[in-house]
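dumping this here before i forget
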Amino acid sequence: MPKVSDDHLAARRREILDGARRCFADFGYDGATVKRLEEATGLSRGAIFHHFRDKEALFLALADEDAHRMADVAAEQGLVQVMRDMLARPQDFDWLGTRLEIARKIRTDTGFRDEWRARSAELDSATLSRLQSQRTAGRLRDDLPAEVLVTYLDLVMDGLINRLATGESTANLEAVLDLVEASVRTNARA
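structure:
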C-alpha cells in the first residue's frame, strides 16, 4: 500500500476543517450531522473520522484554530481588535454562531466543557497579558483587576458574536467598539 505524504494528509485535514466550518455555520452544532458533514466536505465519514475522532473533536479543532488566531491578534493588538476583525469579516467567524448551542453543551457535558475551557484559556491568557502590558505602559485603567476587564471584554465579544449570528444590524457596532475600548483605557486628565 503506498504511503500518503504528510502534505497530502495536511491538505485533506484542511479540506475537512473548511467544509466543517461551513457546515457548522449553516446548520449549527446539532444540525451538522455526519451526512451534512460528508456533503460539506465532499468526503466519506471514514475519511472525515480518520482525521478526527468524532464530530466533537472536529468542532473543537475549529475552536482550537480560532483560539490560536484570535490569541495572536489579542496579544499584539488587543481583544477589541479581535472583535473589529469579526465585524469586518463576519464570514470568517460565522461558525461561532453556534455559541448558544455550545453554551448548552458546556452546561450539560462536563467533558466538552473541560475541552472548550482548555481551548479558550489561550485567548484569555493572551488578552490578560496584553491588558497587563497596557496597564504597565499607563494606557489601561488601574482601578479594576485585569481579570475583571477580561471578563468584561469576553461578555462584549459574546454579545457581538450573538448579534452577528442572528443577523441583527451592525450599523453602530464600530462606535460601540470605540466605546468599549475607551472604557478600558485611562482617562486623559485635562
